[in-house]
Specification:
Shape: globular
Helix content: under 10%
Strand content: over 45%
Length: about 120
């Protein structure tokens, strides 16, 4: 059974930083493509960042240069370091996984999310 549990969300002022974590109970974690998504109220879900099994990364234009995705395969944990936060980063952030190591498939495993609120 796959379980993804996010943590690290909270409230911060604009310009601040947060580090999200996602603990994964996935036997095939080291070969998984992992990603962070977010969804603000009334908005569609947005892909924020992805990381392949060989640690190649990709980012949404809106977060490039500010957010960094990383993974620790020994701890089966995914991270999202968020710096220079803006009010428009306010959203529920979700961790997701897929079995395609190079992120060519569908993210079919999801966590329950952690809320990030950025005030101006």
């Amino acid at each position: 059974q796959v379980q993804l549990v996010e943590s690290g969300g909270g409230s911060v002022q604009a310009g601040g930083s947060l580090r999200l974590s996602c603990a994964a109970s996935v036997a095939w974690y080291s070969s998984a493509c992992m990603g962070w998504f977010r969804q603000a109220p009334g908005a569609e879900r947005e892909r924020v960042a992805i990381i392949t099994s060989d640690r190649s990364t990709g980012y949404a234009d809106s977060v490039k240069g500010r957010f960094t995705i990383s993974r620790d395969n020994d701890k089966k944990t995914l991270y999202l370091q968020m710096n220079s936060l803006k009010p428009e980063d306010t959203a529920m952030y979700y961790c997701a996984a897929q079995g395609r190591s190079l992120c060519s498939g569908v993210f079919n495993y999801w966590g329950r999310g952690t809320q990030v609120t950025v005030s101006s």
